[in-house]
Automatic annotation (TrEMBL):
Pfam families: Glyco_trans_1_4 (PF13692). Keywords: Transferase. SUPFAM superfamilies: UDP-Glycosyltransferase/glycogen phosphorylase. This is Glycosyltransferase involved in cell wall biosynthesis. GO terms for biological process: lipopolysaccharide biosynthetic process. The keyword Electron transport does not apply. GO terms for molecular function: glycosyltransferase activity. It comes from the Bacteria.
């Protein structure tokens, strides 16, 4: 099968997004070497993409339109003229002879526009409209598939949950202290982009109000600013420490050594940090939202809208004589994810013949 992959974010974008693109491509090349795989990347990143690909049998096509959505709408269909299928992210090519599959990470903006800036909402707005031209809509969880079907009924018959996995780069890294100045077992950990939806401000209020953190037992927050800003904490208050972005080695160390991982997000389509934390053996308390119930049904949950509930859940765990075991997480391997996607595309290609 000949497949064109939308690799716009392979070089530039959020770290989690870049790692997902890289994992898709590397797994497909390894597991299905008989397929002819090509990837569309921004022309300005062509040299870096070639370096990423190394000697892999991957054809790279430069694209020049900006932003990402415009590139997918106008360029991918033309580039896919000799392909059996084109797999894009968020946006769907307007026209293509090939089977059109789009991976939509979430349609959260449809239900919660208040979580996003005007610029973000402008980017998201065309996603469900363009998806009407897709042959199949892929997403990560059954919870997100249900949301897509609920908020956009015209897509209900097309949506398929295929899963996501932890990037191989994270699995294979050796943990290394990132130099955060914290002792093993003596800190709380929160990981995620710093925006309103991640609910970090309410988490800070909760741990300070309940006196759950101290300079020698702080809340450590990992993540970069993105979207609607959070208030944050007093830079001089050593009870809450913002580390910014942390590499895979450092992140793995923080997951493995934290006393408790807390994810207070108001909504998620998937929740990669939950999976990373579980694979690292971290005890955790999580927001009571559908995606987290699906990923980690055995975790302890709290109402993310309630400062008191967040504080109580953290206090309950810290009051135990020993840390709770990390819950089992239902996460497939990348080979399983890519296998499901390929099977879905092959089914669509066969139906056309």
């Amino acid at each position: 099968m000949k497949v064109l992959f939308d690799a716009y974010w392979w070089v530039e974008g959020q770290p989690s997004g870049r790692r997902v693109v890289d994992s898709f491509l590397r797994t497909w090349l390894a597991d299905w070497p008989e397929d002819e795989l090509s990837a569309a990347v921004p022309a300005r990143h062509l040299d870096q993409a070639r370096a990423f690909a190394g000697g892999a049998p991957l054809t790279l096509h430069p694209v020049r339109a900006r932003p990402h959505g415009v590139s997918v709408l106008t360029e991918l269909g033309r580039l896919a003229r000799d392909a059996d299928a084109v797999l894009s992210q968020n946006y769907t090519p307007l026209r293509a002879r090939a089977v059109r599959a789009v991976f939509i990470h979430d349609l959260m903006f449809d239900e919660h526009p208040e979580f996003f800036s005007r610029v973000e909402r402008a980017y998201f707005a065309g996603m469900p409209w363009s998806a009407r031209g897709a042959d199949v809509v892929l997403t990560s969880t059954a919870a997100e598939a249900a949301r897509i079907a609920r908020v956009r009924p015209r897509l209900a018959g097309k949506v398929r949950p295929v899963g996501l996995s932890v990037p191989e780069a994270f699995r294979t890294r050796v943990a290394k202290d990132p130099g955060a100045g914290v002792e093993p077992g003596r800190f709380l950990l929160c990981v995620g982009r710093l925006n309103v939806r991640k609910n970090v401000d309410r988490l800070i209020d909760a741990v300070l109000a309940a006196d759950l953190v101290r300079p020698d037992f702080p809340l450590v927050v990992v993540g970069e600013p993105n979207g609607l800003a959070i208030r944050g904490a007093d830079a001089d208050d050593r009870r809450v420490r913002f580390l910014g972005g942390v590499d895979d080695e450092g992140l793995k160390w923080l997951y493995e050594q934290c006393r408790l991982f807390v994810f207070p997000s108001l909504d998620e389509g998937f929740g990669l940090p939950v999976v990373e934390a579980a694979l690292s053996g971290a005890p955790m308390v999580l927001s009571d939202i559908p995606a987290f119930r699906e990923l980690a049904p055995g975790a302890a949950f709290f109402d993310p809208m309630s400062t008191a509930a967040i504080g109580a859940a953290i206090g309950d765990e810290l009051g135990r004589p020993s840390p709770s075991p990390s819950p089992e997480v239902a996460v497939p391997s990348w080979s399983e994810v890519v296998g499901r996607i390929r099977a879905t595309l092959a089914e669509q290609v066969a139906a056309r013949r």
